[in-house]
Structures are given as structure tokens and as C-alpha cells.
Design brief:
This protein has a five-stranded parallel β-sheet with strand order 3-2-1-4-5, sandwiched between helices. The protein folds into three domains: 126 residues, Serine Threonine Protein Phosphatase 5, Tetratricopeptide repeat (Alpha Horseshoe), CATH 1.25.40; 118 residues, DNA Cyclobutane Dipyrimidine Photolyase, subunit A, domain 3 (Orthogonal Bundle), CATH 1.10.579; 119 residues, Rossmann fold, CATH 3.40.50. 51% of the residues lie in helices and 5% in strands. It is mainly alpha-helical. The relative contact order is 0.13.
Amino acid sequence: MKTKDIITDLGGKTEVPDFTPTRAAGLARLELFAERAGEVYDRCRNYDLGPDQRENVSALSPWIRHRLITEEEVIRATLARHPFEKAERFIHEVFWRTYFKGWLEHHPTVWHAYQVGLRRQIKSVDRDRRLAASVTHATAGETGIECFDAWAEELVTTGYLHNHARMWFASIWIFTLELPWELGADFFLRHLMDGDPASNTLAWRWVAGLQTKGRPYIARVSNISKFTDGRFCPTHQLNTNVTALNEEADHLRVPLPDAAHADDIAGDYLLLITEEDMQIADVLPHAPAAHIGALATQSRSPLPLGAVAREFACGAMQDACAGSDVIEAGAWLEALITACRAAGVTTIVTGYAPVGPVATALSDAAPRLLAEGIKIIQVRRDFDTVAWPHATKGFFKMKKEVPSILQRLQLHQ
């Protein structure tokens, strides 16, 4: 397809998404996109037409990542306009994020191994001037590979990349520039508005051939040229004779951690809002005595967070907290104790935090809070409880179960 054909399919419109970090903006984007979530999305979704033309994709990921809007809301809005068979492709894309979350819950050592590897590679950059220069050129968009450089600039400037561009970028980073994959994954996690520990880490591992062992993703000139409609054609610049990366660790599967259900909540409590679920109050049986917001965004990386990603997370939290206090990761403990004392409660309720910085912060705080007579209850949504048990192997195992998952959640008859 040519750009003009795609634009015709989309009603002759081009658009730049309004990434305002509020629930209202997320719902507005969902309303705008939902009509296109069927056959039009299926035909046009793979094309990266540039930052000024995102009408062929949903661009909902920043709001979903923080659950300013939820997966259930997105699926309901889609199925209200399209039969499942017509919108199946888009619904499967929603479930990819769910799959990554569930898979990492089953294999939490992958996140730990990534963090250890990242710290090791950061030390390598400090010691190796040649590596440091190569990483600097790559992140600054100064490699001489036009498409890669454009995507690096777009990522830093906008906090967003088309999914196809993310795969191409990661493949070029690993196999053409021969840079450590952990540093590339960190570059994404620090700059993406939708930066998510599970989706980002596992996608980079997939490109590297670690996730699906021995099967790397190769960025090819023909594919880039076709799906950018000829905007880029990096002839003779890409390495396609690649060997998958490997690792010594064997990440064994473990049972899903226990979590509370919304119906388990009784009595007064302090509601803790985190970036993992900013709408968790909607599923709780009664209102909290008070609420507080807590950010762990900077804990995504030992390196500084990108301005756009940080601004989105901070803005989203301010919107979700409606003017209440917001605390940073390093100040959680004392602030939570003070907030509980002020509200006269000994229970903190929060949305379940999957593997990542928020889960780590909660785990670190829990013993000290318990010593102060304060317990933390993490509430897991039905959506995750029903879907995550199917994230034990490859995505296609979960894909087969999507209709039954939707039926159990009463999202599809």
C-alpha cells in the first residue's frame, strides 16, 4: 500500500496524537480510534508513516501503560463498533501487553538478570571509550543510518515510536551497530511514554533471539522500505547475516504470586495510586479514607529519565490523584507512614504491581510498614487474574484463549 492509499482508507485524514497525560485525553483518543479498529487497522497497522501520521495505529499505549484507561475499556469500545472477527487483530495487540506482563510474572528472574546486565554494561561504557562513543552516537541519532537516526530523534523528542520501528531499531542496535542489548532496552525504557518493564524487556529479548531462543528478528532493507512507504531505504548499511544472542541463565517458571481481590477489602484504608494502575479505585468496593500518589518512574533506570516520559508519568499521576500529594520513589516510606497516621488507618490498598520498579518499591517498604503496624494489600484486577495464567509459553497459546478470556470477563458473547 502507498501512503495516499492508506490515508484514503482512513477517510483522507492525517493526525498527530494529542498525548496529553490525562484520562480525558486517553478516552478521547480511544473514541477517535475505535471506529478504525476493525478492517482498516488490520490493513494499515504495519506502516510507519512518520510522527505526523499516526492515524493508522491506536497510539493508546501511554494511557494503557499507566491504566489511565484500561484494557477492558479499550476492548469494550472496540467490540461496541466491530464484530470480534473484524477487530481480532487489534484485540490481539492489546493482549500482547497482557501476555508480556503475565509471562514476566511467571519468570521474574528475567527482570533481575536484565538489571544486573544493564549495570554491568553501564560500567563497561565508563571504562571503554570506543563503546561510549558508539552508544553516544546511537542515542544521539548520529550513526549515519538515516532511518535509525530519525527514530532515535523521534523517540527522544516525542516519547513514542511505531511498533514496527521499535523492532527495526532494536535489530539495528544489536546486530548492525553491535551494541549491548541491555543499553538499547534502557534507552527505550527511559524515553518511551509507555515504557513498561515487561513489554520493553521481553520485546528486546525477542529481537535478540533470547526470548524465542535462536530466532532473532532481522531488520531488512526491503521490509523497512515497504512499510515506511519508501521514506527510508538503508541499502547496504544493515547486517542481515546475524547470529542470535545467548545466555547461560535458565529462567524457570514459577507460580503466579498471590494477590487480593477487590471484594476482600473491608474497613478504612489509605489508597496508594501508582503508575501501574491509576484507576484501581474504580474496582474497589468503597471509597478510601484518603489517597496518595507514588511515582517510581525514575527507578526504571540508573540513568536519567527522558523529559517526555517523565512529564507524561508525572502529569498522569497528577490527573489521577486530583490534587492529592504525590511522592517520589526514594521518599515512599516516611510519606506513607505519615499519610496513614493522618488518615487514622493501618491498611494501605493499591493496585497489584507486576514485576518492575513499583513492585520493588512496595516490597522494600512492606517490612518497615509492618513494623509500624501498617499492612499493604495489593488488589489484582479480574482481567489480569483471568489472562495471566495463559502466559506460560509463547503468545500464540494465549491467542487461542482470547475468545474464552473475553467471555469469562463478559466482554464478548
